[in-house]
Design goal:
The protein is an alpha/beta fold and about 220 residues long. It has a single domain, classed as Rossmann fold (3-Layer(aba) Sandwich), CATH 3.40.50.300. The protein is about 35% helix and about 20% strand. It contains 6 helices and 7 strands. It has a 7-stranded mixed sheet, sandwiched between helices. Helix 1 packs across helix 6 and helix 2 packs across helix 6. The longest helix has 16 residues. The chain starts with 12 loop residues before the first helix and ends with a helix. One of its GO terms (cellular component) is cytosol.
């Protein structure tokens, strides 16, 4: 029987090399954006990374780009409320969305960020895919499903990336994957493969690079 949302397979050699080359050149921070008027020109392929606070998003972007600190890992989860743009090989924007799940943020800050996020997702024609990061130790939570619903409504295809898979036994990971697959079944914009990653061990990074490089 075919499994819904199977694990993405390792890339073919040509795809792996394209992914390597994309991130082997210059990857630089371009700007942080707090309003739509500050967005850079929509003149290249764009992917964005979204995830709740403490999901390991900064670590994943650092691993993806092969840089140790291109994405800042804040000691205060959710502190950075900017949409951060990075350039890769003069052909891609890598976009780091603020962590969601604002347990300690003022309501006004949350509402402002949510408005900006909705405007960005619905008004960015070059956005090819959103990558929604899910902590493998917990599986998809309500706050993750809220961002998935927003992506559905914005007609933005999204793919789930499981983080921190090295922290679980295989049986624990399978349980987490089951919860996540059940959540994804309700979301029409979900891409039908999961990427399993560990920033610490390097698992899945080659696969993710190849996926980004393969988007046209």
């Amino acid at each position: 029987m075919k499994m819904n949302f199977p694990e993405a397979t390792p890339p073919e050699p040509d795809a792996a090399e394209a992914g390597r080359l994309l991130f082997a050149g210059e990857v630089e921070f371009l700007k942080g954006v707090v309003a739509m008027s500050g967005l850079p020109p929509a003149d290249r392929i764009e992917v964005c990374f979204a995830g709740r606070s403490n999901v390991g998003k900064s670590s994943l972007i650092n691993a993806l780009t092969g840089r140790k600190a291109i994405a800042r890992a804040s000691n205060t989860p959710g502190r950075t409320q900017e949409i951060n743009f990075f350039t890769a090989a003069d052909s891609h924007y890598i976009v780091d969305l603020p962590g969601y799940g604002f347990a300690n943020a003022p309501l006004a800050v949350v509402e402002k960020w949510q408005r900006l996020l909705k405007q960005y997702l619905s008004g960015r024609p070059t956005l090819r895919r959103a990558f929604v990061l899910i902590d493998a130790r917990h599986g998809a939570k309500k706050v993750d499903e809220e961002i998935m619903t927003l992506l559905d409504r914005s007609a933005v295809p999204f793919q789930v990336v499981m983080t921190k898979i090295d922290k679980l036994r295989r049986d624990e990971l399978d349980q987490s994957l089951g919860l996540t697959r059940a959540a994804l079944a309700k979301h029409p914009a979900a891409f039908p493969e999961l990427v399993l990653t560990s920033s610490e061990k390097g698992d899945g990074i080659e696969t993710l690079r190849a996926i980004v490089a393969g988007l046209a």
